[in-house]
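Internal tracking record. Fields below are filled automatically when a chain is submitted to the structure queue. Please do not edit lines marked as system-generated. If the sequence contains nonstandard residues, flag them in the REMARKS field before resubmitting.
Queue: standard
Priority: normal
Entity type: single polypeptide chain
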Amino acid sequence: MPLPALLLPSNLLVAAAVASALAWPCLSVSGHGPELTVAEDTEMVVEDYLLAASRPGQDAAAAEIGARLLEDHAEDALVLDSLAWGILTDETVLVPDLPLALEAARRAQALTGDTDAEVLETLARALVMTGSRDEGLAVHRRAIAACVDDPSTRLTLEEILAEYLEPPPVPGLTDQQQIQRLEAEMRRLVAAGEAVAVTDLLDRTGVIPCRVTGVAPAERSLTSEELFEKVRSSVVVMASLEPVAEEGHHDVTLASGFVIDSAGIVVTNFHVVDAPDSPILAAMTATGEVVPVTEILAVSPLADIAVCRIGIQGLPALACVADAKPGQRLHALSHPDAAFYTLTDGILSRYFVHRTAGQAKRMFTTTVDFAVGSSGGPLVDDRGNVVGMVSSTLAIYAEDELPADAAPEAVPAADFQMGLNMCVPAADILRLVGPKQRTD
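SYSTEM-GENERATED OUTPUT FOLLOWS
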């Protein structure tokens, strides 16, 4: 029998010695986690600093930890270099302390001389980023010279040097930078009193269907490129701030949603909006505008649907149709693991009846890929009409056969066999919104 299990913020699906596990595809982003290829003990020493530096309002605490690292590890080049490298490259650091990074890098280089290319490269980067470009280029060339028996690192450093000498165009924001921008704007809305606490949104909503002005279904099949552009402008990032153990701090939880009425009406999952401890529920558009959810118009906890009003109008709406059939080609546009606006495709596998809280609901499965962060994303047909919405995943595991009297500790870890991607049919969405179709 399926065993319901939440998807943890670490994206680890807990499923030991079970046949299957059900998970909601929401993504919790803690906003920290150094990408340091160093010994575990060293990483743990530096992680405290990076964690503080990734938290709003923790500048003083980060500075104190950084000063203590310089003092306590004055003779440890690995810790000093890891600290500098983390400050210079970790995207979760809100305001990089460049003077601290430069000091740590200089001390690491003084301990290692010109023998360690990675330490030299860290110092070169710190110098360039603090404005000492010529000195930084000279140190970077010394780093290249230190790669006597390491052609791979040498070639990488040569390419970096070429970009220092002739900087390429800025490619845009990374996904992590977009998350940071989204979080900062959500906090600004809360501080400015422009956000509605989620508990208030939930207190004011109900299960009675609302009325929206939908659009007529599209008739023309689209190319993949056309489909992406059409659906992208109607898909939003849904986000909330979930409290963590440390008082006063929150993690950003990300999901998906789509516009069903250009008057600012968005559909997503009920489990996405079911965040009563968050001070805000927000939506980020494809152009990067962040607006609060001002009202939850209607919900269906059993069907996992929520209809929300967001603080912007004029976004193009997608039509909902309830005629999708097994074998039909489908596409999803969502934000799996914060990979914003990812297009995947597959087919509708089957319709089935699912029981939740003792009630029977019709759902469908699909071979279209989605994951944490995809919750509330639309499943569309080749014309860009919504035929369903991402809801959950069901992971199926198999266990090796063991004697009936085998001790529990002898049971091996279950082997993953396949995943079932479960979706809310558009028919359930239409029942909750009862749309009046616009004919223009």
